[in-house]
């Protein structure tokens, strides 16, 4: 595993208070304290802007004109990306000396509203009109009946109004497919999909899940789950898209698009600050305002921009106030992010009638404890206005109209067969793509040239498919690794197995085999966090005992996220198989035997020590003291070497990166980062190049943040030209004093590589930002 340098932080930490909001702490890049003083971005950036005067900026887009000083070569005219003009600078490989200046862009006159992702309001206009027309015809009691749960055959239900053609709403979990019903596909868990870094696949997966929901008669899928894996041991990390807000936002967009393509309303959940299970219904998440906007709102912003119909507010409090009655957070969602759909409570997360309705909660789930008789009385008394009730109903009907439920209501039934050959094939493809090879020494994998193989561990014969809680899917079957390995190995390889957890039993069969495969599972569920990242003494002893007698020991871990590996140096290979769904064994065998080269990349950091990243907080207050430094950002800031870094994942082949250039895209304000990736090995493989942005110090961002990725399939010897778009939105930071995003002026470094710690190419860019400096 390659280790990259960690950017040095400035010596004196700068305090950055977050004025104006009662629920946020005052923090310096997440280190929260009270009474700090705001220092204007202009002051902070003045030093870095001395640099900007060295370069000549074009008056319009600001492509660097002749005379820019840098050590790279200058290109002229259109390039291979299809007619985009160059910025006149080609960045060199990492380590280039003398990088005094790169190209420059002038975004000073940019409309700051473009720094937020938004759904085009035109997409909602017709649905609004339809909803308005219906609201006018509804009686008060009909309106009231639409804003709370009712009895039904699903996880949640809302009665319809047949006389107006408003269908009943049926709501069902969840993020990994249809729950609680038979004849569905058990797809891999979202964390496995996140490991694919594959937007197209996630959209297909979303569409397949949506189709199954629709077949079952579901109108509203309670997914995607877009809380971030802030706490490595958090019980619901398997339902998440990992620790990085950019990755999560990109995959959220794809998942929402996929689900809603099937005329099923997607539900982005849980808004907001629900990053652990410990005390989730009582704890208060303390998140500074900048962090909230940059990190935890970002996936919700993407969901809204993708047109998500519903958002579920979470159990926890935020700054002392329950999320489902939090006026500021809900206003941020509706007004700030432009969400036109409805907010439903998590199941039992409504704690008031009047306060919640007036704060912005639109629907109580799953019953009517607060939004039944109590809301009716409140509307009668005027403590909740009928205008507000109309708004609640209008939001529900707007999403129903926009996703097409009026013209095409769900007609499926819970007993219908929803799974299909195509969906099983997709589940297999997704599981295979997610397999993440962390270590592979001495050609341990793929399994070639063997006459005998010892398959050890309970998870080899009693396989893990998914996690527990409301996302648990009823699996029709799970292909066990042992079964698939025996099938694939055929008669040429003798496969022996023990599921005994006793180290001596395992060592006895491992000693006699050409290679030993240890398959271990780590369980995880909603409702409780994992007690530790440690696999436990017995599992660790098992691996050690096997590794002591077999020099070709391969460990496969079906885990929802990070684990510690005290035996890492003593084994030859490690594969993370995540929660792979029903096609577990087939996907694993395909990768182990080299029918497919592994393609997964870690969507979470694997820390070297449990204390390197936040632990579940069991106090009444869950302090997000790390602020912007979630996951790898924290490890990078602190200069801590991870066990395996975010974005890491090996292939059976090797890739070389070359020829990075920074170009102006056809559309105004957009840049393109272009480079080549070559398969330098003897097998085909897929690489996921990742783009990380390093802000000028004055921006007070973590050392580097993911701002782009791609996926390229390459035959041996082939080269692909990769283009990653980069626009002002990728350079934004949230300024609490203005309650808006800005692009800080200064010099940025753009780095491209195979993981957050294996950066191969880089260039610099000078930006005149929106901050008026
Ligand atoms: C509680 C969970 O937090 C939520 O994700 C789920 O959708 C509801 N229960 C309904 O099952």
Task: Furnish the topology, listing elements before pairings.
Blueprint: E1 27-28, E2 31-32, H1 41-49, E3 86-89, E4 104-106, H2 122-137, H3 140-145, E5 156-158, E6 169-172, H4 190-196, H5 199-215, E7 220-221, H6 245-260, E8 265-271, E9 284-286, H7 289-296, H8 298-305, E10 310-313, E11 317-318, E12 321-322, H9 327-336, E13 342-345, H10 354-359, H11 373-381, H12 386-403, H13 421-434, E14 436-440, E15 452-456, H14 458-461, H15 481-489, E16 494-498, H16 503-511, E17 515-521, H17 537-549, E18 553-558, E19 573-576, H18 584-592, E20 621-623, H19 632-638, E21 655-664, E22 671-679, E23 685-687, E24 690-694, E25 705-709, E26 712-714, E27 719-726, E28 733-735, E29 740-742, E30 746-755, E31 758-768
Parallel strand pairs: 4-31, 6-7, 7-8, 8-10, 9-11, 9-20, 10-13, 15-16, 15-17, 17-18, 18-19
Antiparallel strand pairs: 1-2, 3-21, 5-6, 11-12, 14-19, 21-22, 22-27, 23-26, 24-25, 24-30, 28-29, 30-31
Helix pairs in contact: 2-12, 4-13, 5-6, 5-13, 6-8, 13-18, 15-18, 16-17
Residues 155, 173-174, 222, 269, 346-347, 470 line the site of 1-deoxynojirimycin.
């Amino acid at each position: 595993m390659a280790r990259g340098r960690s950017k040095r932080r400035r010596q004196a930490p700068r305090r950055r208070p977050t004025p104006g909001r009662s629920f946020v702490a005052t923090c310096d890049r997440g280190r929260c304290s009270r009474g700090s003083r705001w220092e204007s971005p202009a002051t902070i950036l003045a030093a870095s802007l001395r640099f900007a005067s060295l370069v000549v900026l074009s008056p319009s887009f600001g492509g660097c004109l002749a005379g820019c000083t840098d050590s790279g070569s200058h290109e002229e005219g259109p390039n291979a990306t299809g007619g985009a003009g160059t910025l006149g600078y080609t960045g060199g490989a990492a380590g280039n000396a003398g990088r005094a200046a790169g190209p420059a862009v002038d975004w000073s006159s940019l409309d700051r509203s473009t720094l937020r992702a938004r759904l085009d309001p035109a997409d909602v206009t017709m649905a609004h009109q339809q909803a308005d027309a219906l609201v006018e015809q509804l009686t008060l009691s009909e309106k009231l009946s639409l804003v709370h749960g009712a009895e039904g055959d699903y996880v949640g239900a809302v009665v319809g109004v047949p006389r107006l053609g408003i269908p009943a709403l049926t709501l069902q979990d969840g993020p990994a497919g249809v729950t609680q019903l038979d004849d569905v596909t058990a797809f891999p868990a979202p964390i496995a999909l996140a490991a694919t870094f594959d937007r197209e696949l996630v959209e297909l997966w979303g569409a397949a899940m949506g189709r199954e929901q629709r077949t079952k008669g579901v109108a509203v899928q309670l997914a995607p789950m877009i809380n971030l894996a802030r706490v490595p041991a958090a019980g619901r990390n398997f339902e998440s898209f990992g620790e990085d807000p950019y990755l999560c936002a990109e995959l959220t967009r794809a998942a929402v698009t996929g689900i809603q393509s099937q005329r099923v309303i997607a539900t982005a959940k849980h808004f907001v600050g629900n990053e652990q299970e410990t005390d989730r219904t009582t704890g208060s998440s303390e998140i500074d305002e900048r962090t909230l906007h940059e990190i935890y709102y970002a996936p919700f912003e993407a969901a809204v921009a993708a047109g998500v119909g519903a958002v579920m507010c979470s159990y926890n409090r935020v700054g002392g106030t329950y999320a489902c009655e939090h006026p500021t957070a809900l206003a941020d969602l509706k007004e700030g992010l432009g969400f036109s759909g409805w907010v439903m409570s998590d199941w039992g997360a409504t704690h008031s009638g009047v306060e919640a309705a007036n704060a912005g909660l639109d629907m109580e789930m799953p019953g009517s404890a607060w939004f039944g008789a109590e809301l009716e009385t409140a509307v009668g008394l005027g403590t909740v206005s009928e205008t507000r009730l109309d708004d609640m109903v209008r939001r529900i009907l707007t999403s129903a109209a926009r996703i097409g439920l009026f013209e095409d209501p769900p007609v499926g039934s819970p007993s219908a067969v929803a799974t299909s050959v195509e969906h099983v094939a997709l589940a297999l493809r997704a599981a295979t793509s997610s397999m993440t090879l962390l270590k592979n020494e001495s050609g341990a994998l793929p399994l070639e040239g063997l006459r005998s193989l010892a398959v050890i561990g309970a998870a080899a014969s009693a396989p893990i498919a998914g996690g527990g809680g409301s996302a648990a899917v009823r699996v029709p079957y799970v292909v066990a690794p042992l079964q698939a390995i025996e099938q694939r190995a055929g008669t040429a390889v003798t496969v022996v197995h023990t599921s005994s957890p006793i180290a001596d039993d395992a060592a006895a069969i491992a000693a006699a085999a050409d290679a030993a495969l240890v398959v271990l599972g780590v369980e995880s569920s909603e409702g409780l966090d994992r007690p530790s990242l440690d696999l436990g003494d017995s599992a660790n002893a098992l691996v050690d005992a096997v590794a002591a007698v077999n020099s070709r020991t391969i460990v496969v871990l079906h885990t929802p996220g990070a684990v510690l590996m005290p035996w890492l140096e003593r084994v030859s290979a490690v594969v993370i198989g995540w929660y792979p769904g029903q096609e577990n064994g087939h996907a694993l065998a395909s990768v182990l035997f080299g029918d497919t080269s592994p393609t997964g990349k870690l969507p979470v950091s694997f820390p070297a020590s449990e204390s390197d990243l936040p632990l579940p907080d069991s106090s009444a207050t869950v302090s997000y003291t790390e602020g912007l430094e979630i996951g790898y950002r924290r490890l990078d800031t602190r200069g801590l070497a991870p066990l395996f870094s975010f974005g890491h994942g090996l292939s059976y082949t090797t890739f070389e990166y070359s020829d990075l250039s920074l170009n102006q895209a056809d559309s105004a304000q957009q840049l393109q980062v272009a480079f080549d990736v070559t398969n330098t090995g003897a097998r085909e493989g897929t690489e996921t190049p990742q783009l990380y942005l390093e802000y000028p110090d004055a921006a007070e961002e973590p050392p580097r943040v993911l701002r782009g990725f791609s996926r390229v399939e390459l035959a041996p010897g082939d080269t692909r030209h990769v283009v990653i778009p980069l626009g002002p939105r990728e350079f934004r930071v949230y300024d609490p004093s203005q309650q808006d995003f800005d692009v800080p002026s200064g010099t940025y470094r753009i780095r491209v590589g195979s993981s957050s710690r294996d950066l191969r190419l880089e260039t610099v860019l000078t930006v005149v930002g929106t901050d008026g400096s």
